[in-house]
Amino acid sequence: MAQLLAGKTAIVTGGGSGIGKAIAVAFAAEGCRVAIAGRTEARLKETAAAIGKSDGKCTPVVADVADEGQVAGLFKKVHAEFGRLDLLVNNAGLTQGGPIDEMSFDTWRKVLSVNLDGVFLCSREAFRIMKAQRGGRIINIGSISTAVPRPDAAPYSASKNGVWGLTKSVSIDGRPFGISCGQLNPGNVQVERFEPAFQPGETMLRPHDIARAAVYMASLPPDAFVLSMTVMPSKQKLVGRG
Amino acid sequence: MGQLDGKVAIVTGAGTGIGKGIAKAFAAEGCAVVVNGRNIESLNQTVAEVRDTGGKSHAVQGDVTQEASVKHLFDETVRRYGRVDILVNNAGRVAGGPLDQLTLEKWNDVLGVNVTGVFLCTREAFRVMKPQGGGRIINIGSLASERPREDSAPYTVSKHAVTGLTRSAALDGRAFGISCGQLNPGNTNVERRRAAGGRSASGRDVGPEPLISVEDMARAALYMATLPPDANCLEMTVLPMQQVYLGRG
After folding, report:
1. Which residues from B are below 8 Å from A228, CB to CB?
2. Which residues of B touch A212 (CB under 8 A)?
3. Which of A19, A32, A69, A236 has the most CB within a 10 Å radius?
4. What is the ipTM of this complex?
5. Domains of chain B, each with CATH number or no CATH
6. What is the pLDDT of residues B7-52, one digit of tens each?
7. Candidate from B179, B213, B242 with C-beta closest to A175
8. DSSP of chain A, one letter per residue?
């Protein structure tokens, strides 16, 4: 069967673990050349090695998306190596929270800097490349917290609502240049790291099912895009009142 | 091996457009698809195209606004295939006009197909899916589920109501393993659109507009349908890149 992303290039931030890793693996399996960015070199190398073993192409780049200089360096390196950038997946994110009266300004700043500043910085760099090459696609990983918050998750919910604003702004600003921007909102996903917010008994999605959604978004022709989509465990509490 | 091997789906409004595209995409993945609509010739055409490529499909003529007709659709499907795993509520009507000139007949007509029809099919699906231990309902909404075009009150109201039904069915189905999600398409390259030169029939004429292919839209529905039973795509919105939608207007 023909590969859905043959000849394409992508950057996936937070690509060393969890959803980002699953997306990098799924993109590479569809013929996409992938660069993964993250702060932990060992995880990036592990993911890259796993992709390499199954004949995919993956370049690990150590970078903190909240750092302007490092983001510029990431895109410069990838552009130089790949020659173009078709896809950016803004996946890197932090989940930290707590009762609002006990929350340090530092926690707030940290979450906002990765989840929101990071998406801005990466989207800006991608825009600079994609405008010049006349097109590209940006996929932001939001959350069901964009629509409905958990308790004690103010910075996370605020950041993900901010991402939704950014998705829409980038989408409308990108339209004249053939740059599309859409958002994928996952519910609970089973990832490696411990999620203190999860309650006992909550059901989990597999990262692969989220990655398949991202593949669909990425594989649309340039003149079509997914603006938003929400994928969650069927039994996760969300649509009702609570 | 198909991604929907052994599954049984009902697709309403499957004689043309997005419904037909979804029926073909599901059948290509091994799903037995019962196609429903008012026009038997176009349903037979869909069935013939599915069978030509080795797929399983059967036509049941009917009107989603009629209680007895909807019951017959589900009875026939269960009689023939034994169960209903997936319902795609796709049948829809587009009509509009300046508010002061809208007839009650037009209003009732659009609301009848787009809202009452979805309710009647969803209710029947619940009656089958509850005892069988689960199932999936996919509602076809619209960009108009969120933002109206000018002169599209009946259509916009109906599609907003579909969002309400999607959420209610998702919530009420949770205890029974029934999931419900909504696919909101932008301008899609269907027969009606092509015949109108890309113009919309649901609101004020703004001339030809960019269109997305039926096949790409059907792939979205296929993703939704192929999720494991414990996962649900609650909503997704797919549109042409150049469609005027997101900004203020």
Report:
1. 235-237
2. 223, 226
3. A32
4. 0.92
5. 8-238 (3.40.50.720)
6. 999 999 999 999 999 999 999 999 999 999 999 999 999 999 999 9
7. B242
8. ---TTTT-EEEEETTTSHHHHHHHHHHHHTT-EEEEEES-HHHHHHHHHHHHHTT-EEEEEE--TT-HHHHHHHHHHHHHHHS---EEEE---------GGG--HHHHHHHHIIIIIHHHHHHHHHHHHHHHTT-EEEEEE--GGGTSPPTT-HHHHHHHHHHHHHHHHHHHHHGGGTEEEEEEEE-SB--SS--TTPPTT---B-HHHHHHHHHHHHHS-TTEEEEEEEEEETTSS-SS--
